[in-house]
C-alpha cells in the first residue's frame, strides 16, 4: 500500500507542478494581453486625433478651393472686360485717325 501511496504522492506532485506551470503561462498571457490592449487604446486614440485633424484639413481645403474658384472666375471676367475695353479703344483710335485724316483733307482742300 505504501507503494501506491508514494505513486499517488508523485502523481499529486506532478499535477500540482502542471497546474502551477499552466497558471504561470496564463499569467504571462494575461500580461501580454494587457500590454496589447493598452497599445490598441493608444492607437485608437491616435486614429481619432488623426481623423479629426483630417476632417479639419478637408474642411479648410474645401473652403480654399471654393475661394480659388471665385478668384479664377473674377480674373476671367476681368480679363474679358479688359479685352473689350482694348477692342473699344482700338476701334475708337481707328475712328479718331479716320476722322482726323478726313478733317485734314477738308482743311487742306
From TrEMBL:
Highest taxon above the source species: Eukaryota
Protein name (record): Sjoegren syndrome nuclear autoantigen 1
Entry annotated with the keyword Isomerase: no
UniProt-listed InterPro entries: SSNA1_fam
Coiled-coil region list: 19-60
Keyword NAD set for record: no
GO cellular component, one term: centrosome
Keywords for the protein's UniProt record, in alphabetical order: Coiled coil
Amino acid at each position: 500500500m505504501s507503494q501506491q501511496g508514494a505513486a499517488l504522492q508523485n502523481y499529486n506532485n506532478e499535477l500540482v507542478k502542471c497546474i502551477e506551470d499552466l497558471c504561470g503561462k496564463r499569467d504571462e498571457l494575461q500580461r501580454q494581453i494587457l500590454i496589447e490592449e493598452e497599445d490598441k487604446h493608444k492607437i485608437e486614440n491616435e486614429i481619432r486625433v488623426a481623423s479629426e485633424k483630417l476632417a479639419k484639413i478637408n474642411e479648410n481645403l474645401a473652403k480654399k478651393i471654393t475661394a480659388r474658384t471665385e478668384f479664377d472666375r473674377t480674373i476671367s471676367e476681368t480679363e474679358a472686360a479688359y479685352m473689350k475695353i482694348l477692342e473699344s479703344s482700338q476701334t475708337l483710335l481707328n475712328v479718331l485717325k479716320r476722322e482726323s485724316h478726313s478733317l485734314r483733307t477738308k482743311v487742306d482742300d
